[in-house]
Write a structure and sequence with these properties.
By secondary structure, the chain is mainly α. The protein is built from 10 helices and no strands. The model has no long low-confidence stretch (mean pLDDT 84). One of its GO terms (cellular component) is TAT protein transport complex.
């Protein structure tokens, strides 16, 4: 048999596999885009009402005679529009992760499938918890601090777009930081970092959590503590979860 034909045949098979994977990826991206678009269009008629509910934590902390303002004519439309898009992403997230899971599943072994499926579901759950924690607990505390820290001669009137940007940044920070257990488990199970090394370096990691919280949160002690302490707690959860998974693999 001609060796060159074998090489050409192997190259052809590789190209077919690459094109097959690209086709599946394209399908996944199309389904994900359609899902977000459908949810977004469904939410758009209620964008004003959604923004009213969204601004409740700020309105509750503002003085009686204060109100929210729009410093630019376009923000009256864009702020509710961006909020609807953000909510569409949150609502669509389970389906987006399902599309991602469906794409990578054929390339995984049986043990990897069960582990990654568990990590994806847990990461989704933790992301939602992080955003809920930021909205219901952290945001009211931060707003209370800033509103009462202002001198009495100043009448606070927050721009609707500035408030939205501040909140979205806060939500993503807490949503991503609540993924710490998933990151720890992935690093340990993937043999990138040893669990014993992390235990030995625990005190440095705790200090690092406070340092990161100080950098990415607003300049007040409450928001820093609200992020640093959960990060520490989630780090410990990640260590114990990784230990449990390791013991389960041995058994």
């Amino acid at each position: 048999m001609n060796p060159s034909k074998n090489i050409n045949h192997a190259t052809s098979e590789k190209l077919q596999n690459i094109f097959s994977h690209l086709t599946e990826l394209r399908k996944a991206l199309i389904y994900m885009s359609i899902c977000i678009s459908v949810v977004f269009i469904s939410l758009l008629p209620f964008s004003k009402q959604l923004y009213t509910v969204f601004s409740t934590p700020l309105i509750a902390q503002m003085p009686i005679n204060s109100q929210m303002i729009a410093t630019d004519i376009t923000t009256i439309f864009l702020a509710p529009f961006k909020l609807s898009l953000f909510l569409a992403f949150l609502i669509s997230l389970p389906f987006l992760l399902y599309c991602l899971w469906k794409f990578i599943r054929p390339a995984l072994y049986k043990l990897e499938k069960s582990l990654i499926q568990y990590l994806l579901i847990t990461s989704l759950f933790l992301f939602y918890i992080g955003i809920s924690f930021a909205y219901f607990i952290v945001l009211p505390s931060i707003l209370y601090f800033f509103m009462h820290a202002a001198p009495e001669v100043i009448q606070p009137m927050t721009d609707i777009n500035s408030y939205l940007s501040f909140c979205l940044k806060l939500f993503f920070i807490f949503g991503l930081c609540f993924e710490i257990p998933i990151i720890i488990i992935t690093l340990i199970i993937g043999n990138i970092v040893d669990r014993k090394t992390m235990i030995e370096k625990r005190k440095f990691i705790i200090v690092f959590c406070f340092f990161i919280a100080m950098l990415i949160t607003p300049p007040d002690i409450f928001s820093m503590l609200f992020l640093a302490i959960p990060m520490w707690f989630l780090f410990e959860i990640g260590l114990y979860s990784a230990q449990y998974i390791e013991l389960k693999k041995l058994n």
